[in-house]
Amino acid sequence: DAGVTQSPTHLIKTRGQHVTLRCSPISGHKSVSWYQQVLGQGPQFIFQYYEKEERGRGNFPDRFSARQFPNYSSELNVNALLLGDSALYLCASSLNAVGYTFGSGTRLTVV
Amino acid sequence: DQQVKQNSPSLSVQEGRISILNCDYTNSMFDYFLWYKKYPAEGPTFLISISSIKDKNEDGRFTVFLNKSAKHLSLHIVPSQPGDSAVYFCAARPTSGTYKYIFGTGTRLKVLA
Fold first, then answer.
1. So what's the pLDDT on residue B107?
2. Amino acid A95: pLDDT
3. How far is B14 from chain A (nearest CA, A)?
4. HSE on the CB side for B97, CA within 13 Å?
5. Does residue B96 register a pLDDT over 90?
6. Are residues B104 and A42, on separate chains, in Cβ contact within 8 Å?
7. What residues contact B97, with CB distance under 8 A and at least 6 apart?
8. The dihedral formed by the CA atoms of B4, B10, B52 and A45, expressed in degrees to the nearest 10
9. Which partner from A12, A16, A71, B69 sits 20 to 30 angstroms from B61, CA to CA?
10. How far, in whole angstroms, is CA B71 from its chain's centroid?
11. Min Cα–Cα distance to chain A from B33, Å
12. The predicted structure's pLDDT at residue A98
């Protein structure tokens, strides 16, 4: 069975650009969450979506947005990239909101 | 404001011995606590969880203990194996919303052969 898949695995962008990260949850999982992990820190919650609706948002600026599609896949969009946005972006899916399964992440580097 | 804290950034243990990883939290409004393991270039992998109404949960070599009065939880790995070498994160789920976890900063465990 395929786990949570994220694309791309690595990405380099320039300050001020926009980026779109993609996530496909485990089959049957309707909940998708996004986390940002900066080097040396634990993952920080960005968004959660369930059945295409935003159920929660972390303390991130409006430059961060996301959506969930009818097939439960999800996109995370970040506008006007800053150097500080460089991080590992993790997508996680869950059946029951306990014990999320994480993907391997997208490593974003902003130069 | 770090609500979930892992004060030991690293831990080294001899193979076959017990590994004890600790986590403290400052907010009583959590209903679930979880431990995740992370290898380099991979996402965190769920290990074990415990409900706030329990004080112990065991799964094979892994046992999590919860001390609510001390706002402290620990993960015991017995016996430790070299393959357990990874970064371990504890996480807590607020009762106010089941939609997010708050993670600690992680403890890097190295099991020496």
1. 97
2. 81
3. 24
4. 14
5. no
6. yes
7. A55, A56
8. 40
9. B69
10. 13
11. 9
12. 65
Q: Which helix or strand (DSSP H or E) is residue B59 part of?
A: strand B56-59
Q: How many angstroms separate the Cα of B71 from the Cα of each of B22, B26, B63?
A: 11, 7, 17
Cα pseudo-dihedral B7, B9, B12, B18, rounded to 10: 40
Contacts of B40 (CB under 8 A, 6+ apart): none
CA triplet A101, A106, A109: central angle to 5 degrees?
150
The DSSP letter of residue A100 is: P
Give me the residue from B6, B44, B97 closest to A102, CB to CB. Answer: B44
- Beta A10-13 vs A106-110: how paired, if at all? parallel
**What are the two backbone dihedrals, phi and then psi, of residue A84, each rounded to the nearest 5 degrees?**
-70, -10
Give the whole-angstrom CA distance, residue A49 versus residue A18.
21
> Mean pLDDT for each 10-residue chunk of chain A (111 residues)?
90 98 94 94 93 90 96 97 97 81 96 97
CB B44, CB A4: distance < 8 Å: no
The two counts, helices (H) then strands (E), for chain B are: 0, 11
Residue with tokens 């065991």: B58
> Looking at the partner chain, which of A33, A42, A90 has a beta carbon nearest the beta carbon of B100?
A33
pLDDT digits (tens, 9 = 90+) for B3-46: 999 999 999 999 999 999 999 999 778 989 999 999 988 899 99
Amino acid identity of residue A101, one-letter, is T
CB contact under 8 A, A56 and B100: yes
